[in-house]
Design goal:
With 109 residues, the protein is α/β, with parallel strands linked by helices. Helices cover 20% and strands 42% of the residues. The strands form two sheets. A four-stranded mixed β-sheet has the order 1-6-7-8. Strands 3-2-5-4 form a four-stranded mixed β-sheet. A hairpin with a 5-residue loop joins strand 2 and strand 3. 19% of the residues are buried.
């Protein structure tokens, strides 16, 4: 099951409130794979497609393509703040099985 840390939940809720659109959802997905590793997409989207899965996590609506569900089922979304700014980080234990090299964590801006 997809996990979202409390920091990431707070950040996403703040960002959704600023959007002022009740139909907007967080779209989370996978792009890439194999030796390049997994890359992730994280953003807002109003569209819902027939191949999408809608999941409500702590009142945050997430849209995930059904083809990505298996790769994201153990992923964790975190938000990290530092002196330069902040960003979302994705930790996915399944990514190591998909990668030839690199780490299991990726920063998403």
């Amino acid at each position: 099951m997809l996990l979202i840390t409390d920091r990431a939940k707070r950040q996403l809720k703040e960002m959704l409130q600023r959007e002022k659109n009740n139909n907007i959802r967080v779209r989370f997905g996978v792009k890439g794979g194999l030796c390049n590793g997994l890359s992730y997409t994280l953003g807002f989207d109003k569209q819902m497609y027939k191949e999408d899965h809608l999941e409500l996590i702590d009142s945050i609506p997430f849209t995930i393509n059904k083809n990505d569900l298996e790769l994201l089922k153990y992923a964790t979304i975190d938000f990290k703040q530092d002196m330069v700014g902040g960003g979302f980080h994705i930790y996915n234990p399944l990514a190591e099985k998909e990668r030839c090299c690199g780490s299991k964590e990726e920063e998403v801006h």
